[in-house]
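Quick bug: Small CPxCG-related zinc finger protein output formatted oddly.
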Amino acid sequence: MADQALTCGVCGRTVVGDDVAGARLTWVRSVENGRAVWTCDTCSRTHLRSIEGKLDSAWW
Ligand SMILES: [Zn+2]
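Here's what came back:
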């Protein structure tokens, strides 16, 4: 499928073809404003801390 592609919403990394199946398993899918937003495995690991940091600051 030529139109099968995932783009990371954080770093812009794009996977196509056979890599998409693997990326769907390891990337994090979230929904913003009704649109699916994918975060690649690297960014989800990197941003996990900052996401938790934002939650923490929101709590206080
Ligand atoms: Zn990324």
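Actually, after a second look the formatting is fine. The chain has a mean pLDDT of 83. Closing.
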